[in-house]
Amino acid sequence: MGRSGAGKTSMRSLIFANYSAHDTRRLGATIDVEHSTVQFMGDMSLNIWDCGGQHKYLDNYMNEQKENIFGNVEVLIYVFDLETANKDSEYTLYDECINNLGKYSRDAKVYTLVHKMDKIPEADLKEAKLDMYRRALAKRSDLFMPEVFGTSIWDNTLFHAWSQIVRRLVPSMSTIERHLERFQKLTEAAEVVLFERATFLVVCSINSDKGAGSNKYMIVSQAIKTYRNRCTAIQSALQSFEIRNRDFSLFIEPFTKSTFILVITTDPEIEPAVTKANIKAAQPHFQDKLLI
């Protein structure tokens, strides 16, 4: 949800339809509501409603169609356009969405994306802008506690935000994390990351360095998806990816029917063939027992 031109359809197309950032320039305005169903992590279906942001549609959503639009919602993602000239109008629309969500879907989770953050080059100014939105939204969301992300289609921030959102929809996430951590310990890997196969969003990551950040995985996510799209453009397919040097060995392999796995080892005594064999041996366990 958000006003026209905020970038809602662009981000949906980039994440779920394999568009590049440049490709999104071809997209036109969304007419009314565009419905799409995406299979995610096995048998889970994401029913995504992309709501057009023109005034005539917004009035309809908030009045005649409000029960249809805001009923049975699991997640509301509100997109703020950083470039909008009328901040009060943006907040007014957000308030209406939250009020209707409170009436028809009180258990929904709310995420807000402050989009087009690439327009602010300095990192400290970006964080200051996000803090401003966090303070403003905290005062307006009594029933819901929205999580705020700064995003752009031109860097990995969009992948970070959507990874955080969708992984919280996976009902068996704690079980997946527990089994992935056991895999990491048994194989003596330094890092293990699970990517959703279609979107290449980060589902789960385990790092032997507990203090390490996960931002680099979002960079890998975006880079590999871009590489895979280019392979597709020349009628090829991404089978696997491998980097080896004196410091580490990195493997990205198909894992289950709905995931890829990334494994990094830093112990020079662990042969690459052993790591690949461990990945292959673990596949039936994750596929059959975790159903992913």
UniProtKB/TrEMBL annotation:
One of its GO terms (biological process) is negative regulation of autophagy. Gene3D superfamilies: 3.30.450.190, P-loop containing nucleotide triphosphate hydrolases. One of its GO terms (cellular component) is Gtr1-Gtr2 GTPase complex. GO terms for molecular function: GTP binding; GTPase activity. Keywords: GTP-binding, Nucleotide-binding. PANTHER family: RAS-RELATED GTP BINDING RAG/GTR YEAST, RAS-RELATED GTP-BINDING PROTEIN. Belongs to the GTR/RAG GTP-binding protein family. Component of the GSE complex. GTPase involved in activation of the TORC1 signaling pathway, which promotes growth and represses autophagy in nutrient-rich conditions. This is GTP-binding protein.
